[in-house]
Amino acid sequence: MEYAAVMLCPEGGVIRHDQTLEVANVLVGDFDSMQDAVNQACRDLDCVVMHPREKGIISKGRGKGGFMLVTTQELEEV
Q: Contact at 8 Å (CB) between 8 and 15?
């Protein structure tokens, strides 16, 4: 399955493009599981898993924002 990392502001809100309002995201790649995608995203985006129970949420550090991993199908719904 293909995964993307949706950019989050420090308060946890989704970052959108100013004019198009499209969700800001980074394509992570094709993986067999969400955990594999999270691990790769952490390496690529220099992040850490924020809350193990909240699958797919990774952080750049306290007060620095982060990302929410979703499938590309879910990205269309965000």
A: yes
In angstroms, the Cα distances linking 27 to 6, 24, 32, 56, 68 are 9, 10, 15, 14, 12
Q: Longest C-alpha distance within the chain, in Å?
A: 34
Segment-wise mean pLDDT, segments of 10 residues, the chain, 78 residues: 95 92 95 93 89 76 90 89
Burial class (CB in 10 A: 0-12, 13-18, 19+), 76: exposed
Q: What is the pTM of this model?
A: 0.86
**Cα gap 31→70, rounded to integer Å:** 12
pLDDT digits (tens, 9 = 90+) for 50-72: 766 567 888 888 888 999 999 99
